[in-house]
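Below sits the subject:
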Amino acid sequence: MTNEPLRRIAWIDATHGVAGDMLLGALLDAGVELATLQAAVDAVIPGTVRLVADEVTRGGMRALHVRAELLAEDQHHRGWSTIDRLIADAAGGRGRDDEGAAGAAPLPPTASEWARSTFRRIAEVESRAHGISVEDVHFHEVGAWDSIADIVGVCAGLVALGVEQVVGSPVALGNGMVRMAHGELAVPGPAVSDLARGWPVLPGPDGAGELATPTGMALLRIGDPGPMPPMVVSAVGTGAGTKDLPRHANITRVVIGEPADAVGPPVGQSSSVDPLVPEHGARTMLACTVDDLDPRLWPGVLDRLVAAGADDAWLLPVVMRKGRPGHVLEVLARPELAESLREVIYQHTTTLGIRSWEIHRDALHRDWVEVDVLGETVRVKRGIRSGRVVGTQPEHADVVAAANALGLSELEVLRRAQAALHNV
């Protein structure tokens, strides 16, 4: 079997709200070391913030709350370009404070990329709200040291857990009024409303106040909306907000796991019905034609669509007007996910329009069996209809691993695996 690390997914349950400190607490509760988060923050703003974790109760639920204790004078107003430079320098091992002192160890490149994109999302929202260019944006609350610590810490925490994909639930935004740097505003505020475009949202209980902050909403957009993907869960963490509200647990949960199709069944076991098979019934087909997207981006687009809940997604090569080569992207999904998947397509491709139509899907049940090929285990997926096996297919990753271990061709291992099925 292959020894390569499995791709990990983080599913964020924001149905009770989301904020930077809540996500930070959830990742810490899921297994990230506090020292790892502190090192990431020190790489960007050394000697400025100390992270402290407390176990608390919110709405009767146990959770971790992380607070940032300021060790230096805070400057609330800071430009996006300044913050972007600090994070970029940290990824290159050149983290410095405002006085030019040498910083800590480099920030992981992926964490730096996610943190910079998160701040840029907030900057773009602020620029639209105030009618100024992104370069002229100066942050207020989210430009404070503790907010920088939240964003950098969350991105570093995801990387520390090996997360490559992020999927998020609908978000409870809250209601009522909240005091901001510019005065009192209705919930959700302009920044959260803008950041929530295309994302399923909930109001939360009456009188809850602000349940989603701009920082939390911007961090959530590292990923895509969708239900919890089929996965084998490896860790669960619960993070707490500052307030303990009546009739509402002020928490955010993070579920970490490996994709179920990558893990397969335990050795010696098979499942009678593969949980990855969607149920029969109505489906929506989404499609668009694209001729100006860098083709290297398509695998990531397909992965994001499946992670966001699509039953399947694929590409068809086409020749367009004037002989231009292009692709037709087609996505099959449950009708209730169509709108969130449209948002993924618009965000990650260059299309200007999406076609859709309703269809009916019929799917076979599946199970897994394991066969022995000269001492190597190869999983085989079977398609079942009315209790009868109508198709079999050895798992390609297992075939490749067995071929490498045995010094045989993949074709030979495939033949032996198919032959071994007669003994199952």
About this structure: Residues 8-258 form one domain. The CA atoms of residues 13 and 90 lie 30 Å apart.
